[in-house]
Amino acid sequence: SYRVRLRFIGKDGRSSEWIERPSIYVSGKTNVPSAVVGITAEADGESLKISWTAHHDLDVDKYQVRLADNTIVYYGASPECYWTPTSASTTTFYISAGDDSGNWSTESSYAFTYVAPTLSGVLQGTPTTNALNLNWSEAAKGLLPVVGYEVRSTDSGWGTAGEVFKGDALTCTVAGADLTLGFNTFYVKAIDSVGIYSNVISLTYLVS
């Protein structure tokens, strides 16, 4: 609130008594900004670029993007942000606009489904002397590029156990301790540029 006092000063420098007015209350803006619109998402390098239409209200000076678990993905002035996916699943983003009076719009939601690479065909094996040559077809790209393949001797705890091969080739040779008497099953997955795996294909081979 403000208390206003007024007096007059003449050309000769003489002044009147102060005139006081009751306190004047000034209310700031209370209307919230309208909701964010025009939300899109696309691959950009090794990230997902999320963008939206810049707000038409001149006093909107910030945006916030959060996930369903309230993790803040972005807080800033630009109408775009970047996010790195962690799994091939559907993620919902909640975006709001804020003005310089501290008012926030209602949240706009945007659901995005991340597409992982896809392996098709079968895993083929060609036996040689004391070894097995494995080969497979190139994986179809998902949202982001495929950067390599992993071959493992177990499908349990993928990424931590039984690694036989890791690289960008479409073939590998299994030998030695990785090829034992009895039934041997090998599993192949493609991996993209942010570390998300494709579906798995497998081959079981009998060493007698």
What characteristics describe this protein?
208 residues; mainly beta; four-stranded antiparallel beta sheet
**Percent of residues in helices:** under 10%
Unreliable stretches (pLDDT < 50, length at least 5) are: none
Largest sheet: 4 strands, antiparallel
Helical segment count? 0
Structure commentary:
This protein is an all-beta fold. Helix content is 0%, strand content 46%. The protein is built from no helices and 16 strands. It has strands spanning 5-6, 19-20, 40-44, 47-51, 60-66, 72-76, 80-83, 90-99, 108-113, 124-128, 131-135, 146-152, 163-167, 171-175, 182-192, 197-207. Strands 6-5-8-9 form a four-stranded antiparallel β-sheet, with no helix packed on it. Strands 13-12-15-16 form a four-stranded antiparallel β-sheet, with no helix packed on it. A three-stranded antiparallel β-sheet has the order 3-4-7, with no helix packed on it. A hairpin with a 2-residue loop joins β10 (124-128) and β11 (131-135). The model has no long low-confidence stretch (mean pLDDT 90).
Q: What can be said about this structure in brief?
A:
This protein is an all-beta fold and 208 residues long. It has strands at residues 5-6, 19-20, 40-44, 47-51, 60-66, 72-76, 80-83, 90-99, 108-113, 124-128, 131-135, 146-152, 163-167, 171-175, 182-192, 197-207. It contains no helices and 16 strands.
